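#dry-run=false #mode=assembly
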Amino acid sequence: MIKTAVIGVGKMGISHLSVLGAHPDVEIAGISDTSKMVLDVFKKYSSFPTYSDYNEMLEEANPDAVFVSVPTKFHAEIVKRVLEKGKHVFAEKPLCLTPKEGESLVELAKRKNVVNQVGYHNKFVGTFKEVKRILDGGFIGDTFHFTGEAYGPVVVRPSQNNWRANPNEGGGCLMDYASHVIDLINYTLGSITKVNGSILKSFFSKNVEDSVFSLLELATGVSGVLSVNWSDETYRKMSTSLTIIGSKGKLICDANELKAYFKTSDCPANYTKGWNVKYVTDFTDPVNFYLRGEEYSSQIDYFINAIQKKVPNNINDFQSAWNTDRVISLIKNSANN
Amino acid sequence: MERILFGDNQFFAVNHISDEKSRAQAIKFKDDSAIIRTLDQAITAGVTTFMCTTHDRIANICDFVRAHPERYTNFKMFPCMPYAHKYANAVTELGYVGTLKQYVPGNFMGSLFKGGVAFLSKDYLSIMELLIDSEMKMFKGIDTPVIFLQNVITDLLLGLGMKDILKAFHDYVIKRYNAEPGYITMNMPMLLDTLESVGIKNPIICSSINKVGFRMSGGKELYEKTLATRTLRAIAMQVLAGGAVPAKEAIEYVCKLPNIESILFGASSKENISETVSLIHLYDQKYQLQEALYKS
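#status=ok
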């Protein structure tokens, strides 16, 4: 059994905790949160040991692995503490507030030789994995250009008063929403190395941006557009998509459906020349416990499997998450110029 | 429960495998009259139970049903609570406490915080009961023989091991509403084990059951085995796996399975409604006949 502790039982923390609670190889060693009410509810209705001080929990409960799902501002300090104690760590995204903060975590994780993973769950969504497979196989030829988008109803009225509305705590559309798309682009298409211009625009928020519009360039010279807006109530929930066009075809992909166009019959097996539509059901194996989406369980299964040395620690490691933080920083600088 | 239940995903632009289809539905059902029209079509086809989430628009539908009792004499509704996105968005914006302050009626939350009184654990169940009452308000005067807990909450509690809360929901629905409690889940075998462990026998469980194993946690074989050997009142939903399985194949598979009391489906046109209903009748007749012959 892998003794696992969770630091931060907010919306993401409680979701991870539920998946972990249902996992046959995981024993919950403890949970900690700053909210007395949360700890109270868990004390009464669950069998998880509760702590108001995460340091005390790390000492007393002595877990093998720790999940860190606190506001971004606190990632650096808490993840560092966990790594110093030699525990495997799963951190929520983005890794840190700046790439500088994250650099030392990448290095420390390597030195301590522990499993390290960040919650960019789109890498576990069947349709996006298929996009990577098609691109890696060269089936759309030379990639010309891409559009990476995400829209959702996070801030649809003025006067929000929480950590996501505070730029010093990791708030704002760029860190909280766009980070998912940036990470997905780095993964499927290749590392973003240049940002040719950015607009960070507020619609309802006072102190943070509600949208990110950027012109991007990959190391390979491929160009792209990033368009992210979390003030769009026409979407019931976050909707992330990639559109990629190349010399031999085009892909339009979101978390539910993949539309693939091939100019010729030189295309992957199970696809034909012209338009093809595939659904996430074609690419997703059922998980042993489902909550909100297979990808949330798959990413935790992967983390646990990596600790058990059944798979390599090479999806969503700190290094790749740091790479995303690096691009976030490029976009910030580009918007300020 | 009726053999066939009518669902509401199509009315609220919920399509689990296509955003494009979702948007088309949002446009089609922009007006409440379009929802009513479709419900009437379902009733004409013999489907008189509407299983729906506690979305704000359902309140309007309830108003209409209450105002026209002669049209809806045998009509039943199975409320499914809570409408997850309402609370999830509130938690993002306001945190847990802010959300409770917003949605728990009366001054209950205010009195809990006054004077820094320590939380008495039984008050959390009172909060749950008040939230259930608040969600049920829109259904006053309407026949609601089964009341469901939505899968996001059921499964969250399941993973957290909070089975006492699952039991408290069960007990409150019976005591306060004289109705049967039901649970929607994506983890049917695990939920059945947990409910039995707190003394809930033969529960009503609605889960995704289809030919391709879509959202059947633990795998299709485990579901088939559970249905064949355990005691539960199963409702099959997502029978078409969002559209991934053609209707005929999908329905034949479900009608052939043992121990399925009801089938839940959603549709947005008269043709689709009557096609689905006739296919269910067709395969029910075929397999019930086979079963009768086999037994004799």
